[in-house]
């Protein structure tokens, strides 16, 4: 009996194995093949229905929100300052990476759309179909195209490495460009750099002194040496990127994005604090970049030497490092080392481009928004000192008398828009109390006047010094005194320069008495 049961069981098992299992064609799929059929249709419809991620409206040029009226600066009285409040929200097709070791930004990575504006960049982990990547290198000894099955960080790295490990035929010079932006606040720095991934600008921000700097201006200069790009072939449909329907909760409420392009190379971000204008800094660094040996014009060198310059280096043959640039030679050394792509200088991720996971894969343009205040000051109250230094006698004495008894008046007037705005008297003597001056002698006066203008026209506003001079003959009536006449001189404000040696002039009374003046701008 036991033998019979055993034989029957074996027979039934054999029959069951021979009977085909009934199922639809859609239920059978290769786990390496993209979604197809109803699953693909439903998924593509879902992707088409998801909106773009929420972000501010793009404002390509800064908009003025408000302005404070001009006010005199408390610490530097010669300055008048005003604060303008701006809103700026530029859009970027390509974003700077600033983090060569990132584990979420790589060609083919899929990210949660709503995490992009926040800078979180949350990856979507799912069953992925194969993708095709290509490198823009044109002189490698082999194919620049690879197929990546089960795309993820490790497999993408491996396949990209297989491209880069091929021999390079000839030099692959980097494409070079640079741009400079003025930085006003820490909040606005991300906009100037063009980066928002995980507080990417923190390293750059640390190079600036936003609270207690002795410099007037701050700039960010981005210098790029682009070696190549790694690009992903766009899918015809979103479903082409998956072998199974992803967890819909992981996708989020907005359209996911994928990393379509990553640009590799070398980037130097110069943080510059200076009292020079943007135009002057731009010209100085342009000369340094164009120099054949690092030497530049003395004026350009002075601009860089008098600025605080630091460099954040990403990619190339060196590691990510913050360096201090001590002069134009350092600038030149940075850009000449690692200037070509090679196995030893393969570059680091510099920037990336995102595309929406929708049919047609439109670019996911990222808008970075900030409201910030810009306080600007300029010299509105220049201050000048005018000093009557001395009077000199050159034949002014009486016949038979070794000295002259001088009297009269020497004054100064400050003209703005052809109107006297201030006046002063430097020297004044009466006939009964004369100024005694010996033959060929010079006698100090040392009388100074300090005057202030408000936003003068330096080319047309001026300080006038003038006077009348008499020499008393005390032994005769009043009408026999010697009249040395009048003298005057206009000194225009543009002739008196701040930070330069004082201007000295003489006015002469009939060639017999010279009055020597010193003009200097002190603020």
Automatic annotation (TrEMBL):
GO terms for molecular function: cholesterol binding. Residues 55-75 are annotated as: Disordered. InterPro entries: Thiol_cytolysin (IPR001869), Thiol_cytolysin_ab_sf (IPR036363), Thiol_cytolysin_sf (IPR036359). Residues 58-75 have a biased composition (Acidic residues). Pfam families: Thiol_cytolysin (PF01289). It comes from the Bacteria. This is Thiol-activated cytolysin family protein.
């Amino acid at each position: 009996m036991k033998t019979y049961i055993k034989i029957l069981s074996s027979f039934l098992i054999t029959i069951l194995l021979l009977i085909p299992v009934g199922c639809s064609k859609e239920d059978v799929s290769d786990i390496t093949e993209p979604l197809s059929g109803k699953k693909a249709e439903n998924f593509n419809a879902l992707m088409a229905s998801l909106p773009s991620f929420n972000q501010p409206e793009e404002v390509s040029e800064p908009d003025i929100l408000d302005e404070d009226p001009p006010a005199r600066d408390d610490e530097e009285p010669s300055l008048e300052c005003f604060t303008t409040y701006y809103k700026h929200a530029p859009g970027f097709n390509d974003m700077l990476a600033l983090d060569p070791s990132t584990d979420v930004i790589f060609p083919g990575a899929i990210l949660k759309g709503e995490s992009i504006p926040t800078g979180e960049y949350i990856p979507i982990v799912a069953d992925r179909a194969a993708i095709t990547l290509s490198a823009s290198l044109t002189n490698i000894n082999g194919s620049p195209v690879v197929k990546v099955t089960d795309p993820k960080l490790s497999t993408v790295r491996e396949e990209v490495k297989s491209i880069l490990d091929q021999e390079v035929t000839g030099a692959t010079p980097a494409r070079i460009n640079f741009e400079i932006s003025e930085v006003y606040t820490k909040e606005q720095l991300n906009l100037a750099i063009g980066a928002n991934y995980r507080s990417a600008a923190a390293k750059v921000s640390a190079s600036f002194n936003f609270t207690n700097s002795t410099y007037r201006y701050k700039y960010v200069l981005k210098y790029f040496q682009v070696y190549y790009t790694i690009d992903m072939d766009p899918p015809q449909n979103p479903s082409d990127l998956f072998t199974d329907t992803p967890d819909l909760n992981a996708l989020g409420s907005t359209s996911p994005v994928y990393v379509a392009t990553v640009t590799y190379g070398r980037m130097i971000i110069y943080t510059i604090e200076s009292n020079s204008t943007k135009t002057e800094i731009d010209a100085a660094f342009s000369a340094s970049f164009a120099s054949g040996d690092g030497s530049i014009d003395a004026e350009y060198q002075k601009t860089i030497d008098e600025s605080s310059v630091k460099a954040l280096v990403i990619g190339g043959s060196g590691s990510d490092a913050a360096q201090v640039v001590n002069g134009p030679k350092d600038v030149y050394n940075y850009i000449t080392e690692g200037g070509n792509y090679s196995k030893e200088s393969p570059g680091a991720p510099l920037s990336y481009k995102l595309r929406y996971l929708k049919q047609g894969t439109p670019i996911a343009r990222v808008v970075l928004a900030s409201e910030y205040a810009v306080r600007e000051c300029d010299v509105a109250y220049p201050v000048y000192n005018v000093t009557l230094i001395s009077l000199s006698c050159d034949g002014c004495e009486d016949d038979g008398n070794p000295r002259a008894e001088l009297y009269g008046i020497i004054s100064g007037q400050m003209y703005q828009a052809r109107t006297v705005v201030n006046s002063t008297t430097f020297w004044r003597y009466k006939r009964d109390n004369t100024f005694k001056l010996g033959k060929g002698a010079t006698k100090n006066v040392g009388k100074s006047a300090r005057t202030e203008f408000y936003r003068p026209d330096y080319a047309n506003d001026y300080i006038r010094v003038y006077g009348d001079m008499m020499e008393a003959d005390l032994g005769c009536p009043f009408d026999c005194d010697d009249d040395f006449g009048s003298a005057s001189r206009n000194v225009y404000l543009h002739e008196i320069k701040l930070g330069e040696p004082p201007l000295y002039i003489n006015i002469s009374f009939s060639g017999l008495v010279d009055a020597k003046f010193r003009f200097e701008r002190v603020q």
